[in-house]
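Following the same procedure, backbone shapes were mapped to integers, yielding the entry below.
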Amino acid sequence: MVALSLDTFAQVENVPIENQVYEFLDRMNVRGILDKYSNSVLPISRREIGELLMSIDKKKDVFTELDLQYLNKFKKEFSREMNSEEKNSVLFTDEPSAGKYINDITSSSEKYLYEYSDSSTSLYVEFLSSFRHKSGLEKKASSYSSEQHVGRVRGTFQKYLGYFIASTNGTVFGDRNFALTEPKLTQNFKFNNLNTPYFDVTEGYIRVDMNIFQLEAGREFTKIGTGYSGRLLLSDNAALFDMIRLDAQYKSVRFFYLQGRLEQDRFIFPDLTIVEDKRETKYLAMHRLQFPLFDIFQIGVSEMITYQRFAPEWAYLNPFTFYKSLEHALGDRDNSLISCDVEIYPMNNVKLYGTWMFDDIDFKRIGSGWWGNEFAWQAGVFHTNVFGVDNFDAVFEYTRIEPYVYSNRVQGNNYTHADVSLGHHLQPNSDELFLRFNYRPLEQLRLWFTVVTERHGTNYNIVDSTVNVGGNVLEGHRWFDSEFASFLDGNLFKKQRAVFEFSYEPVPNYFLLMQYEAVKENETWISKISTTHNLTVQVRIEY
């Protein structure tokens, strides 16, 4: 049975981070249409997105025609959150009619397999399916294909309890080794460790939304930081992990807290100074305060710590304390990081942003080249309507991660989850220049062109010994490693990438995606240069 009521209420479950509404909100913010919004913590709830879209809707008189089309698109997707009477297209209902199914699958409405709603409770069931093919374009190049299907159930119970579960299953066909160049497949236990052609992923959480504060328990992809090439604080590079998350907001001041359980790294780096008990579990604690300043600044201060215990550390369960000082009081055995990020809006259509992170610091040794002064920083500019061209945007960004950042002298305390960095995709002792253009010529079509240049100083081996220059997140500083670490020391690896992508959505929830990528890699220490060209085509349906 499907019951529709005009007594609507906002859904309090989160919107997955890959939803294109975040791109729209960010663009409206930079254009000066949406005030005091920040995309530095994602995801956020459907209720909050509905409120932001209603705020934008009040200023639509300054929209371009295409911006208005996008707004109308999202008003349909978030109709319940915006108190709209717009009806969704629901495949399975008790009201079949001639031609209904054909009309539903080609309509411009948001699509669901099943929907139930009354004055206080809702349930939405979706099925997502995709087929993807990736091939190299050189002679005798490899290729592989994959299909995946996702069942997704979400909703809100009694107006304040949100729930979400998504189960993904898929199959890989073709060259297995080529498929393992994809990070998500490399990290998938079923595909990689069990040596099967199948992979699976599960997301799920429950979320209590009391308006001023929200409490969530479960697992979902989360991003924290200001970057577009990757976030220094928390990115979606690593696999999902279970967490408890607290969000609190009063007016424009926002507080965030997270306590998560991580998987230990499988790689063991010998001769580290301190080794914890192998039976202990790895955890992540994080808290963050974000606030505006003078109407043109958004400032965020964050603190993260990875640690190993038989159970979560009571001291780190307290969200309102200073972790670095606690870490010292607990024996200086954990890995703490502190960061500050800022977003600046000097004028409409321009955002300046940056993140500065300190993994460790000794002020007396700043400038000495001491390995323990571990910094990472990222700075960029986001410009909308570049050269006065509507719907043509650009991001220019530089990221630099000093030697030994994210790694730790204690085995297992690296800022990682199952061998993969929780922060930026770059290894320590690296930097990156990132330039991306984004153009939306039509409501149904989005185009991206990205150019990236990376440099990385790698650790290297002499006989059976590793020369550690701080170039691997899994290889912390050992007692006999050099006391000094120069940026880009070691074997210098250079990489250049050019990527063209488009997403075509002829009908809402039906996508055709294509990506062409050219990669040039230079292993300078052996004068080896290689170039590859890859083409990826994907068809995706969300119903």
